[in-house]
Amino acid sequence: MGTYGVMGCDHEIRCDYEKLRKDRLEKTRAQMEKEGLGALLVFEQDHIRYITGTKIGEWNHTIRNRYVLLCKGYEPILFENGSAIASKRLLSPFMKDIRPNGGDMRGTISPSGGGVPRAVEEIVEILRERNLQDAPLGVDDPFFSWVDALQKAGIKVVDGHQCMLNAQKIKTDEEVYLIEMAAAMVDAGFYNVIQAAKPGVREIELSSIMRDTCLRLGAEAVHNAQVTSGNRCFPHPHDVSDRFLRPGDMVFMDVVCDYMGYKTCYYRTFICGKPTENQKYVFEKAYRIVKDTMDASKAGVMSDQLVKMWPKATDIGYASEKEGFLLQLMHGIGITHWAKPVIIPGFSEDHPEPLEENMVIAFENYYQKDGDAARIEEEGVITKDGVRALTKFPIDTLISSWEW
Length: 404
Known about the structure:
The chain is 32% helix and 21% strand. It is an alpha+beta fold. A 6-stranded mixed beta sheet has the order 4-3-2-1-5-6.
């Protein structure tokens, strides 16, 4: 991959979006074949983008009234919001078959109107035309009304969500490029956030600085800019508030930045003032967990080996691994914020899986002692020899915002 920049240009190699779209579709087809699917019907917006290279605003993410049908041996069909079809045909000419969507807008249009059965009837007719009506249809994340109508029409509905997650597990060079571009935006955001982190500044203000930085640099969205400070750090609330910083507060921040559909999951910890010995100890422990785990990771390493390196939930103030869920983990990241594999205590010891070359992994941890807490997260590409870090903001030093 060539140089980094948000603009495409004629004089340097950057992201080849035509290749990106082609590779993603081919990976999806290969996974369908592997899992024995005749067709896929997907509603999840990230999955639609993965197959078609098309998107729409975030407002549609939970409504799921767009969908794509991908039949074995055929080009995908995008069922789009009616008023968006004309612009898609004009601006996304690589998508050849775009039709009006059906359904009932997540049940907000009265089911008595029969919107879902009519939409299903259209899907079934296409499957019959292609002699796929008896083959398994993978469906990723529909509502009950869709599954019910498909099954009543005699279609064998199976889990298509796993098919999509498996197709996305190994990243192409273009995908890694886009993830690293998103991470570079967050690098800049952390620089600006720490400069602004003074007593009296609220968590939500720091969140807004991160969002502003990423959006100005070209991010499509910032799905999360969570800030946690002081006595909110333990137990971890996984949220942002209007609490204002005080001298001596530890602060950690998590950012999910979206660039061209590809996400980050990126934590850093710093301090507002001068750290105590306990705060230095907590930060060093958090840093060592991430560093040692990354040093031990490469293609072929099994997940159960890595889980053994982490502290138990009971060692950091939680009653059990279930109550400490999301504090010590590794997870894939890509066009979906959480991708395969997910490596967690209490599961991965008994269900080991290998790291594979060109997975992109978020190495995520948390440590606390006597109420002080730190959270650090790195993103890296798995190689045959180790991990290439994509996140560049320093993690080996507890930075003071007063000295930044």
